[in-house]
Amino acid sequence: MRGLRILLILVVVLGVLFVVVDRVAAYFAEGEAADRIRATENLAATPDVDIRGFPFLTQLAGGSLDDVRVGIDDYEADTGESGRTLRIDRLTADMKGVEFSGDYSSATADSATGTATIAYDELLRAAKAAPSDVGLGVKAQLVGLSDGGDGKIKVAVRIQGAIAGAVHIDKTVSVRSSVTVEHNRVQVHADSLPVIGGLALAENRVRSITDFRQAVDRLPGGIELDKVQAAPDGVEITVKGSDVRLAG
To answer: Which InterPro entries is this protein grouped with (predicted)?
Structure first.
């Protein structure tokens, strides 16, 4: 009995030591991977890397990780316009089946899913900022974006001018708009248009103000936009990808 007790104690001690060594090894691997991703993507700050599978050491020996989560704050996405980027407040991606080289110089995930959040003030930069003639002697300007509820965006438009040169107007109206994703572009489309003074404004002119699209390209590893909906602090986008290159 005494020998069995000693054996059990040894097993427990060795088990604890294995867990400690495994977690320490994972910690250092996360740091190395984060540095590689920062260099590959030319990030301003080091991303968060969380190797989730356990045990890590057996995965390391096999050269493949089951599940890795990467989190990046304040990522500057390409907009397709020279010299202009769009800030993503928080980008997270869960990587599955990550194959890597021994020195972590390259790593590729079989698949990735995640989320990205773009604040409304950032999205507003994509819209036409200057007042534009929308007919009936008035001009309109997009002045705000916010959460409209039920996944919709509330678009605020300021209307100024004199209808038919007589009725002066200066007011801000709001319309609820649908937001979708197509070909890595966030698209905002008004469900209905404002009526001013009982008169409908020229639709094509008003939509040149209320409706717009914003490219969000060159995300890390080649992941792409999938779906989008309005949320309290901005638009929330789901992203996905396959054969996603994390480093190298």
So the answer is: DUF2993
Tally the domains of the chain. Answer: 2
Query: Domain range for residue 13?
Result: 2-119
Residues 168 and 162: beta-carbon distance below 8 Å? yes
In a domain, 59, yes or no: yes
Phi, psi of 120 (to 5 degrees): -65, -35
CB atoms within 10 A of CB 231: 15
- The Cα 29–Cα 40 span in angstroms is 16
pTM of the entire structure? 0.81
3-class secondary structure, 189: strand
Residue 207: its H or E element? helix 203-210
Contacts of residue 199, Cβ cutoff 8 Å, sequence gap at least 6: 136, 163
Per-residue pLDDT tens for 19-29? 666 677 777 88
Positions in the chain whose pLDDT score sits under 70: 1-22, 102-105, 126-128, 163-166, 195-201, 247-248
- φ, ψ dihedrals at 89, nearest 5°: -60, -45
Answer with the one of 88, 119, 150 that is the final residue of a domain: 119
Decide: 69 and 47 in contact? Cβ < 8 Å. Answer: no
Domain match, 159 and 63 both? no
Residue 196 class from Cβ within 10 Å (0-12 exposed, 13-18 middle, 19+ buried)? buried
Say whether both 69 and 105 belong to one domain.
Answer: yes
